[in-house]
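Session log. Operator J.P. requested a structure for one protein chain; no other inputs attached. Running the standard single-chain path with token output.
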Amino acid sequence: MFDISIAIILAVIAIALVSWFLRFKTKSSENRMTRMMMHLGLNPDVTGQSDLETIIREVRRNCQRCQSEGMCERWLAGTESGPNSFCPNAQVFEELKKYQVGGHVTHAQHSDSGKIAAS
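Structure written below.
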């Protein structure tokens, strides 16, 4: 009985740690995404625009799966120079900037080619 109780407690602790880690990783990538957008001159409020929901969902997913977190942090801190070509969202951010007017992206659509096009 004692062994089962210890196993249950350890399982609960493991689940709690994994849950905490996943929340931390999501929050960290969201923070980096926002900082990257601001650094590039793109208004982070664009993430709340309903007409860009699909694009922003993909941008978030790319950021969460990114393997260049350290490079991103250094680039954002200014200790790494050069273009942000390491960023899987770099091209999307540049396309969004083309349609930003008054802090909001206007009439952008995700085309079949993966680029953003004005409608």
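Operator note: The two ends are 66 Å apart (CA to CA).
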